[in-house]
Design brief:
It is an enzyme of class 3 (hydrolase). The protein is of the alpha/beta class.
């Protein structure tokens, strides 16, 4: 076997460019590109290597390291973890800017490869610019911040180490159970050092995502529990989408008459109008799904990590027997569930076959249908246009967007109050149409995430729903979207501050404090700001004006920002479930006493167990 003399950086980039994955039966590049912001830690090593790669591994330049990592994460999410991106930065702040995004990827089980530059492995010129010095441990650098938020972490101190480190990182990135961010810290001197690379290391490799079958004993236990159920409920999580299990889920629900509730990550697993889709589950859930959850005796949780917003802080279905169908054993056994460790599609198919002609009691199926029909009527009422002249609610704004949205459109959102409104009220048409980052609830994800979704599916209309708070935290990738021709429609809801947390503050017995900006900040001309970043932008007076502007924005070739003022005090009260936000145990007034009493009552219902 021959060898090729390359720098460590060149070998790394050529290796990444050679990776392939299978999508729709076709082999395509595993990496859609590399986001790069150069500095002294990567400009002389990875920089020339990326330039030489050209179209084989395209390089994209963003304006903020956290934002470009969000875009890379959204790209992988839109591709259901079948494709991904890498991100490289210099050492120091460029690297640590990505740590928040690494946490987003880690929590949401999404693949992204981080290649931050690092200080000199030789330590010859130490301390270099931006070097973090740990007085008692010279091996520490700023990149050690990535360790707790990476599924795989390595620091390359010799060029030969990439020959084992890169394949190990790819194993994690493409493993459905371990999937998450991989970080390879790359000292700037090592990037430029040479090694003899085996030709076989650079050959194309096809990665097929593993889809494990269920264990026969676990399948038997799950089947027995379901067959005895009188009030069964399915919770569909993101794992349904990542396994491509939407059709299997629809067939299961139809064959057995079982209603399906959806998490934030799982929303769109079934179209909103599918007869068995009971709506969103949990704290931000629909009244229909939550009522079924409270009554259910068996809950089949598919591809969800059952975080507190899904489980109502473990109080929503405390009486139910849980079955955890999940590709990861860690998630399958949560809440003392019967574990069924398997690929979602294969696990659902196995359950369907094992259950044979079993069906949920007809009365339960009819109860779910009636509850869902009532909820659909509620959604129509809440999202209808307001009276002319009234300051609209978030629900009324998203209703206008949803009605105007092309069927193949994608809505992107993240933190604040909007995800709750969207989870309850948005009518998703397919698995890709609803793109929410709510595992880490990261403000600032929205616009960058929209960019990543657009790069993944350029043929689909991408609409970003963002509040003024998140917009002010991170808006720079508007300029990137314009530069790349990755056109977005951004609907900016301006409620003058952090309206969601202001409402939570009052709901836990507190007084409004430090959230709304009415008296603390000048009015911001968001449209003018967006235009300064290269977008087309307009401030609109209400929902009627928004409805007129949306078709023009969808036809536009350039990113368009539509600004709408909204009511900071209003949110959808219908639906929802308890969320454990601790209330003062030493209440000081009537509001706090009332909030504490309600808190203790709800907490007493919480499910115990692992």
């Amino acid at each position: 076997m021959g060898t090729i003399r390359l720098t460590a950086a060149e070998a790394t980039i050529r290796f990444l460019a050679a990776q392939r994955t299978e999508v729709g039966g076709k082999a395509v590049p595993l990496f859609g590109g590399v986001f790069a912001i150069f500095g002294h830690g990567n400009v002389a090593g990875l920089g020339p290597a990326l330039q030489a790669a050209g179209k084989r591994l395209p390089t994209f330049r963003a304006h903020n390291e956290q934002a470009m990592a969000h875009a890379a994460i959204a790209y992988a999410k839109t591709h259901a973890r079948r494709r991904m991106m890498a991100c490289t930065t210099s050492i120091g702040p460029g690297a640590t800017n990505m740590v928040t995004a690494a946490a987003v990827a880690h929590v949401n089980r999404l693949p992204v490869l981080f290649l931050p530059g690092d200080v000199f492995a030789t330590r010859g010129p130490d301390p270099v610019l931006q070097q973090v010095e740990q007085f008692g441990d010279p091996t520490v650098s700023a990149n050690d911040c990535f360790r707790p938020v990476s599924r795989f972490f390595d620091r390359i101190t010799r060029p030969e180490q990439i020959l084992s480190s890169l394949p190990a990182a790819l194993r994690v990135l493409t493993d459905p159970a371990e999937c998450g961010p991989a970080t390879i810290a790359f000292p700037q001197d090592v990037q430029t050092e040479a090694l003899d690379v085996p030709e076989d290391f650079l050959r194309p490799r096809l990665h097929r995502i593993r889809a494990p079958e269920p264990d026969a004993r676990e399948l038997a236990d799950a089947t027995t529990a379901l067959a005895r159920a009188k009030r069964p409920l399915v919770i569909a999580g993101g794992g349904v989408k990542y396994a491509g299990a939407e059709a299997a889920l629809a067939a299961f629900a139809a064959a057995h008459g079982v209603p399906v509730a959806e998490t934030q990550a799982g929303k769109g697993s079934l179209p909103w109008d599918h007869p068995r889709n009971a709506g969103a589950i949990g704290v931000t859930g629909a009244a229909s799904a939550n009522a079924l959850a409270e009554a259910a005796d068996v809950v089949l949780a598919i591809g969800t990590r059952l975080q507190d917003f899904t489980s109502g802080s473990r109080a929503l279905f405390p009486q139910a027997r849980l079955i955890g169908l999940n590709v990861g054993g860690f998630d399958a056994a949560k809440h003392d569930a019967l574990p069924l460790v398997a690929d979602a599609a294969r696990g659902i198919a196995a359950l369907t076959a094992a259950l044979g002609g079993w069906q949920a009691p007809a009365a339960w199926t009819r109860r779910a249908e009636a509850a869902t029909a009532r909820w659909h009527a509620t959604v129509a009422r809440l999202t209808a246009p307001p009276k002319r002249g009234a300051l609209p609610t978030d629900a009324q704004v998203l209703g206008a967007v949803n009605r105007a949205m092309p069927r193949a459109g994608i809505v992107v959102c993240a933190a604040g109050g909007l995800p709750g409104e969207l989870h309850k009220l948005w009518r998703a048409t397919d698995a890709a149409s609803y793109h929410l980052e709510y595992g880490y609830s990261c403000m600032g994800y929205e616009i960058a995430g929209g960019l990543g979704a657009k790069l993944a599916m350029p043929e689909r209309e991408v609409v970003v729903m963002v509040g003024d708070g998140s917009y002010l935290m991170m808006n720079s990738e508007i300029a990137t979207s314009v530069a790349l021709g990755a056109k977005l429609t951004i609907v900016l809801l301006d409620n003058r501050g952090f309206g969601c947390i202001n409402r939570l503050q009052k709901g836990t017995g507190g007084a409004p404090f430090n959230n709304l900006l009415e008296d603390a900040a000048p009015a911001i001309d968001f449209a003018a700001h967006a235009r300064s970043l290269g977008a087309d932008a307009v401030a609109l007076d209400g929902v009627a004006a928004l409805e007129e502007a949306l078709p023009r924005a969808f036809r536009a070739k350039r990113t368009t920002v539509l600004v709408v003022a909204t009511d900071p005090q209003s949110s959808t009260q219908e639906g929802g479930a308890w969320w454990d936000v601790p209330v003062s145990a030493v209440p000081r007034d009537a509001a706090q006493r009332q909030a504490r009493a309600a808190y203790e009552t709800s907490r007493a219902r919480r499910r115990t167990g692992a």
